[in-house]
Amino acid sequence: MEQVRNDFVALYGSEPEGVWAAPGRVNLIGEHTDYNDGFVMPFALPHTTVAAVSRRTDGRLRLHSADIEGGVVELDAAALEPGTDHDWTAYPAGVVWALREAGHPVTGADVHLASTVPSGAGLSSSAALEVVIALALNDLYELGIPGWKLARLCQRAENVYVGAPTGIMDQTASACCEAGHALFLDTRDLSQKQIPFDLAAEGMRLLVVDTRVKHAHSDGEYGKRRAGCEKGAALLGVDALRDVAHDELDAELERLGELGGDEEVRRLVRHVVTEDHRVERVVALLEAGRTREIGPVLTEGHASLRDDFRISCPELDTVVDAALAAGALGARMTGGGFGGSAIVLAEAADVETITKAVQEAFAAASFTAPRVFEAVPAPGARRLG
Ligand code: ADP
Ligand code: MG
């Protein structure tokens, strides 16, 4: 935090009014359910984006990131237009745009930020960036917007201003997660429940393995899956796939076939419906203190993403296969797919063996060495000083 504050002073010539942090996240279970009105269960990472911010009254928005080459970017807060910024500044500018669009009197800001959230690794550096700006402006301009609503505005910034069609999970996780908990979120009504998730106390660990393969979130594959899900819901006559009952899934898939749904649509529907059910199973297991038993549910989730949703890749499959072969309790890809990160649930005593097994499997396949770190559920966005 001191570094960010000092760098702000060096850039803008005065102390910032405050310093805020917002975390990246990993999703424990509930993948590609958030745009189907379904359930997700992310938790916050200890990795954060930290921003030092001051208000301005002259309409100028000045942005600087320690993680990007180049100087301060200066924009006019009143003249922001979706689709006009094409670099990283679109994320913070989009937040200012969304706040102003919603009628909040944000009259400019000086911003300097620095992040420890790996970018483009499926750990939501974009949401951390949006949420830290939204929280800072909410505090400084005394807007009184609750966390879940800030998340909505950040999603709007990313969807409309940046042009990336993401669901509501990432921003809500960054804004609302609590330390030691996973966030059970119903993306239909945005109701939340904090589920205790303290693996260390039970002798377990959760590893994140960043495959270093860049995912491309806003590319055609994501759009195709989304469109396929919408088609499935339309054919079945429901608002969203969330409304397809898990215990009627086989009959519903048959009906979908009769209604003209092809094999691909049926696979997409099967993933979403079984994945929603897996989230509910994980919540029930955690609430019953049967934490180890979530392992196989996570692994089932991976198989569903690989075989039904078809968004895995050789690197993600290698993490999962190598970790399970080395004794992991469960493993799955996490995030949008086609790269990014996987998570591995393991007994604390097995962490070293599993890490080595994954690294060796990557070396044997001539993949770039993965980045492996332990994830402890950390707090959501907050003011640091
Ligand atoms: P993810 O959210 O999975 O990390 P995205 O592609 O959604 O990947 O977001 C990554 C983008 O967010 C980066 O390309 C960059 O534009 C922006 N970004 C994230 N962190 C920072 C940062 N610290 N400084 C500047 N831009 C950032
Ligand atoms: Mg993102």
Structure characterization notes:
This protein is α+β, with helices and mostly antiparallel strands and 385 residues long. The chain folds into 2 domains: 2-194 and 379-383, Ribosomal Protein S5, domain 2; 196-374, GHMP kinase, C-terminal domain (Alpha-Beta Plaits, 2-Layer Sandwich). The protein has helices at residues 2-12, 90-101, 125-140, 147-162, 169-176, 220-236, 249-258, 263-287, 294-309, 314-325, 351-364, and strands spanning 18-27, 39-40, 42-55, 60-65, 73-76, 109-115, 181-186, 192-196, 204-210, 330-334, 341-347, 371-374, 382-383. A 6-stranded mixed sheet has the order 5-4-6-3-1-13, sandwiched between helices. Strands 10-11-9-12 form a 4-stranded antiparallel sheet. A 3-stranded antiparallel sheet has the order 2-7-8, with helices on both faces. Strand 10 (330-334) and strand 11 form a beta hairpin. The mean pLDDT is 96. Bound molecules: adenosine-5'-diphosphate and magnesium ion. Magnesium ion (MG) is lined by residues 124, 126-127, 170, 217.
